[in-house]
Hints:
The structure is a homodimer of 341-residue chains.
Chain A: H1 2-8, H2 12-19, H3 30-42, H4 49-54, E1 61-66, H5 72-87, E2 91-96, H6 101-113, E3 118-122, H7 129-135, E4 142-145, E5 155-159, H8 161-174, E6 180-184, H9 189-204, E7 213-215, H10 220-231, E8 239-242, H11 245-257, E9 267-269, E10 286-288, H12 291-305, E11 319-320, E12 323-325, H13 336-340
Helix pairs in contact in A: 1-2, 1-3, 5-12, 8-9, 10-11
The structure holds a DNA duplex (16 and 16 nucleotides).
Amino acid sequence: MRDVARLTGVSQSTVSRVLSGAATAVPIADDTRERVIAAARSLGYRPNPLARGLRGMKTMLLGVIVRDITDPFFAGAIEAVSLEAAARGYNVVLGHAHGRADEAIALWGVLEARHCDAILMLGDMSDQPRLAEDLRGSPVPVVALWEGSKPAGIASVSVDNRAGIRAVLAHLVGLGHRRIGFLAGRRLGDIREREDAYVEFMTDGGGVPDGYLQYASNDPPGGVSGLTAMLELGDPPTAVVASTDVLAMGLLFAAHGRGIHVPEQLSVTGFDDIPLAEFSIPALTTVRMPTREMVAAAVTMLIDDGLDPADPSAWPRPILAPSLVVRASTGPVVARDTANA
Amino acid sequence: MRDVARLTGVSQSTVSRVLSGAATAVPIADDTRERVIAAARSLGYRPNPLARGLRGMKTMLLGVIVRDITDPFFAGAIEAVSLEAAARGYNVVLGHAHGRADEAIALWGVLEARHCDAILMLGDMSDQPRLAEDLRGSPVPVVALWEGSKPAGIASVSVDNRAGIRAVLAHLVGLGHRRIGFLAGRRLGDIREREDAYVEFMTDGGGVPDGYLQYASNDPPGGVSGLTAMLELGDPPTAVVASTDVLAMGLLFAAHGRGIHVPEQLSVTGFDDIPLAEFSIPALTTVRMPTREMVAAAVTMLIDDGLDPADPSAWPRPILAPSLVVRASTGPVVARDTANA
DNA sequence: TTGTATGCGTTATCAC
DNA sequence: GTGATAACGCATACAA
Lengths: 341, 341
């Protein structure tokens, strides 16, 4: 910048004023501006974000804390975040909590110390109490995505998990299913809400039969073990709702391994609509997550609108609607002997 | 830091010397050091990375340029990078090129301007000539992962794609297959090398039959269209080698949709061994990528060893070996009429 | 309309 | 052993 000033014959502050963009408090002569810009270009000047940040300005960094990048759903979400951020000239700093509680806490510290202009949390971190605590009173705005339950201490963008599960269950009931099992993950965030929605629905219909609600790790192996557990039941379900697509993938795999035909003998559904859901065998009936819309909403809140740290009650907490996607993994219930034939 | 100095009763420089870690040029009284540390802790002092970076020190930022985060393979790679980086106190800044040529170029500029201490490129970006050009003479060390061809102008860590493909082909030949097709992606990086390896292998055996080498986008839909194209052949292959697991997923899906049994009527293989490969239907025979080892090697080169920018010829370019994983998607070739029965 | 001077938080180079 | 001071690159309050 000093070089630009020398080359143009003006002072360094003038260069700064011209180059810092539109928001010039004081007017600047047009020819000066042009000369500065030309010089800057010829010198290949690029502002130093570190210095900008030091000076108390924006760092144009968006911190993202995610539980598990390997989860195809979150991978897609990160892509969406990256796109939205880039559209605003922001870069994404990745914080990877990979499941460990203390990690996420440290992460927040790191991200905040890096003076991220904003922090986005992907997934529920409520099993890490200190994190939530640190978040309050944070000078940098934080938005939680797919946090599930909303403890009202933080801004968030959520999906209507209950509506999604209800749509799935209604679809199955419409196909004639009465014995519907649910494969849940840890009672955290979205997954927990989905489980609760299932329980509510079943309670209205007489309660959850023993063993119809199973827990597993949120990955394909979890789906395998979940199906195994349900098949050990005396009166196994004719349909299994998985709280997640990756879980459903495991379900399909396990069913195939046991010679159970989907959907003739067993209907399977997922949640999220990850890219591969369309190409599972058979193609998975699932609930489509409005990922891009949700991410866009979150980034807009974070960067464009700017949450007022002083007034948490004013923070928006939009809840978006998911939509049912019917594919080939669900079908009408078939009489048992026919199915087994 | 000023507060710490005041509280301790020493000067700010002393505080800096104590807190900047081990590399103290001059000795410091033990009690002073302890008092400073205690004060810093009680005040909750945390160094400001921006100021550190400004002062010309390390910024502890590792830039990662990736083509497509949605690709499950790269998602896993990013996780590995994140882990390795975290182990060294580094944060990951994500640069997402999402396919567009100009994007990746801009990305490099951004990452460099951000004073990343090092940059990691995931996947081949050689279709973006300006990027490669900018990379030379870059003050910050760059390592390319899965770049495939090695133009010797950049440090890299690669996998032996030829060995992987040869292992797959030998496996298929051992099962009796002679009519083996190959589904390739764009002629870029690893995928290109795999294709070349296939062509070489087939050339030794009499050449690639017409239509046995097909191209498609590197995703499940690509696999679907690839299979369609091959089945239109008068004498379709009995086995198809996909250059990628996601492609193989599409292949399996398309085969199922057409009522073709895998592996009885058609053997299918992939490459990468993404987490879901083990749970495809049937479980995918593929080539396991030594992702963690490769990432560890790259990060070690980048951060621990530190490449000498002055001497590109001295840059290491290790090539790691993949390994064949035989699962259920490959089987012995079956007489055509039997298979069709 | 433009130039001068100051400070952001740190580390490094000098003196003492 | 430790303290004062300059500098990193930039934005702004103030002076001209």
